[in-house]
């Protein structure tokens, strides 16, 4: 008796970006903008039909800087619905400018273990050597791979597989722009075969809201720069911000004179301390000068661990969604950051809670 082999089912959600950008045939030299939807992107890559049974959903049509956390929360809810309906994996095509944030939000929000793969393109379809079709094909190949399940959201471009929580865009134009500076890529795709070399622990999601529509309070992200006195920090309440991520110098340092102001704000709203370097983990116990990581953490700032500023801001935004209770929020955010960071590493249970 011959058994019918079922093709894996994959839903492709398009959100816009360079991968979907073409020029307006009527306009002269107006630059490219997102115009293609998921169905057109899928149709342009015939080999996809040999890989999966595909459903195409044009979810948004935007340059990725226009996307919001609320958009991604809504997308996460749609993804979980598809998984409940038997879809084996999903691929999201979007602009590369914000993939490091949207993929991390999906990492935190999507409940199903099935593969969630985000991709895009650095060269739009009007240029020589556009990379969109190759990236889309590789992304679908990863999405149908059972070994890609249970890893959290993944980012696939340039034949590399990255965990959403580690990856960053590092170059304005190079197709090899996506890099996981601290941890390295977790796998690759060769001749259409995805290889998962490393398996990060699934992210801990129990402190986070369910996906769907919701309100996400404003969270500021400020980067330290030489000679800046950080006076913007004093304006956050007036501007209606509910939290702050500060991207500090090096291992977690700010000018000494900014410490009292940061400590005062940290008593009222969550202030997360990240590094502006883009690689490595925040220090916790090395430097003892005013404005050092030890000083700031002893005054109530919350360590971002290995998360860079934009990713720490995504985690904080999701933690602050829902009814506001400033006092409970402060304690809950601190614990949730600790739990998230601890759950990412197998040595999270170390006796000294490192
Ligand atoms: N340059 C961007 C891209 O790669 C534009 C965007 O993020 O929408 O798609």
Q: How would you describe this structure to a colleague?
A:
By secondary structure, the chain is of the alpha/beta class. The chain has two domains: 9-196, 3-Layer(aba) Sandwich (Rossmann fold), CATH 3.40.50; 219-320 and 324-342, Rossmann fold. The chain has helices at residues 38-43, 48-51, 69-84, 99-109, 132-143, 259-266, 293-298, 309-319, 326-344, and strands at 9-16, 21-23, 32-34, 53-62, 89-93, 116-119, 154-157, 160-163, 168-169, 178-179, 187-190, 193-196, 219-223, 243-248, 271-275, 302-303. The strands form four sheets. An eight-stranded mixed β-sheet has the order 4-1-5-6-7-8-11-12. Helix 3 packs across helix 4 (99-109) and helix 4 packs parallel to helix 8 (309-319). Bound molecules: aspartic acid. Aspartic acid binds at residues 17-18, 63-64, 95-97, 120, 122.
Key structural traits:
26% helix; 16 strands; disordered C terminus; 2 domains; 354 residues; 4-stranded parallel β-sheet; Rossmann fold; 9 helices; 20% strand; globular
């Amino acid at each position: 008796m011959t058994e019918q082999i079922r093709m894996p089912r994959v839903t492709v959600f398009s959100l816009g970006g360079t991968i979907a950008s073409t020029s307006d045939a009527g306009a002269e030299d107006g630059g490219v903008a997102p115009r293609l939807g998921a169905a057109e992107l899928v149709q342009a890559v015939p080999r996809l039909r040999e890989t999966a049974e595909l459903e195409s959903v044009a979810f948004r049509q935007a340059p990725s800087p226009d996307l919001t956390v609320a958009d991604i929360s809504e997308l996460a809810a749609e993804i979980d619905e598809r998984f409940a309906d038997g879809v084996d994996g999903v691929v999201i095509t979007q602009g590369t400018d914000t993939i490091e944030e949207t993929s991390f939000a999906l990492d935190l929000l999507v409940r199903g273990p099935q593969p969630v793969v985000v991709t895009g393109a650095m060269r739009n379809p009007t240029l020589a050597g556009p990379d969109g079709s190759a990236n889309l094909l590789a992304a679908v190949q990863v999405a149908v791979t059972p070994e890609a399940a249970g890893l959290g959201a993944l980012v696939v471009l340039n034949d590399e597989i990255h965990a959403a929580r580690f990856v960053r865009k590092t170059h304005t134009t190079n197709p090899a722009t996506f890099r996981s500076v601290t941890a390295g890529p977790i796998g690759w795709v060769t001749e259409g075969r995805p290889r998962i070399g490393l398996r990060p622990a699934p992210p801990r999601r129990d402190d986070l809201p369910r996906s769907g529509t919701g309100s996400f309070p404003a969270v500021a992200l400020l980067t330290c720069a030489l000679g800046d006195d950080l006076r913007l920090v004093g304006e956050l309440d007036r501007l209606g911000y509910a939290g702050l991520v500060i991207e500090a110098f090096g291992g977690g340092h700010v000018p000494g004179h900014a410490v009292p102001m940061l400590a005062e704000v940290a008593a009222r709203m969550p202030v997360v301390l990240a590094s502006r370097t883009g690689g490595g983990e925040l220090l916790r116990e090395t430097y003892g000068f005013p404005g050092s990581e030890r000083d700031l953490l002893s005054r109530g700032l919350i360590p971002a661990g290995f998360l860079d500023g934009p990713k720490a801001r995504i985690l904080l935004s999701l933690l602050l969604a829902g009814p506001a209770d400033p006092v409970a929020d402060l304690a809950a955010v601190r614990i949730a950051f600790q739990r998230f960071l601890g759950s990412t590493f197998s040595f999270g249970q170390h006796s000294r809670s490192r």
